[in-house]
Amino acid sequence: MKFESPPWVEIDTVMFDMDGTLLDLHFDNFFWRDLVPEIYAKNKSISKEEALAMITENYKQVEGTLNWYSVDYWSHQLEIDIPELKLSVAKQIAVRPNVELFLSKLKNINKQLLLVTNAHPKTLQIKMQHARIFDYFDRIVSSHSLNLAKENHGFFKRLQSVETYNPKRTILFDDSLAVLRQAKIESLKYLWGIKKPDSQQEELVCGEFPLVDDFEQCFPTLNNGL
Ligand SMILES: [Mg+2]
């Protein structure tokens, strides 16, 4: 799909996902695919390959549900203190290029800025302490507080109960195709994906939504509504 900068004059509300959108997903992939299996293998005296296979099976069972994103669930399932482990490697949390500049530009033209994440409140807290991008937001919402994951049916309607917005004048940036598809079902008008959520993995290929490579491509300019 051809990339065009968002039509900012037609947009009041800008919703951002966090992991893979504002922050490099590499941290989370490293954490869940590498570090957690390594610790689990050590704790259970099994090989890392066996640990990865067992954990992957466990991941699959709760994919797309809030438990998938719940550090409490995983701490219990894997008998590992997940928040503590996250904190121990939190220095590796990285903001994607041009995010802060983009947020400040949107703030300057008075857009309503919302951070809407599936991250568990404990994870959110750790990320907020290690990335300096959170002061720009008018509201930060963890989907756990609404008891639905963003990709679950009815999420965006329920979001209106904590923050009102006009779906016809809203843009969502999110690296999850499942979330973008759910937002489309619920009539959010402008839906943008992320080309490379993990800086160290391949680019996504998708014909359904425009994909942002660098947020510089979306900066408001005189031509698109500054
Ligand atoms: Mg994400």
Textual characterization of the structure:
With 226 residues, the chain is of the alpha/beta class. It has two domains: 8-25 and 93-218, HAD superfamily/HAD-like (Rossmann fold), CATH 3.40.50.1000; 27-91, no CATH class. 37% of the residues lie in helices and 11% in strands. It contains eight helices and six strands. The protein has helices at 26-44, 48-62, 71-78, 82-88, 99-108, 121-130, 155-159, 177-185, and strands at residues 13-16, 112-117, 139-142, 170-173, 190-194, 211-212. Strands 3-2-1-4-5-6 form a six-stranded parallel β-sheet, sandwiched between helices. The longest helix is centred in the N-terminal third of the chain and has 19 residues, at 26-44. The model has no long low-confidence stretch (mean pLDDT 95). It binds magnesium ion.
Quick structural overview:
The chain is an alpha/beta fold. 37% of the residues lie in helices and 11% in strands. The protein folds into 2 domains: 144 residues, 3-Layer(aba) Sandwich (Rossmann fold); 65 residues, no CATH class.
Give start-end ranges of low-pLDDT stretches.
none
CATH level 4 superfamily of the largest domain: HAD superfamily/HAD-like
What's the quaternary structure here? single chain
Provide the spatial order of strands within the biggest beta sheet: 3-2-1-4-5-6
Q: Spell out the helices and strands N to C.
A: EHHHHHEHEHEHEE
Proper CATH architecture of the largest domain: 3-Layer(aba) Sandwich
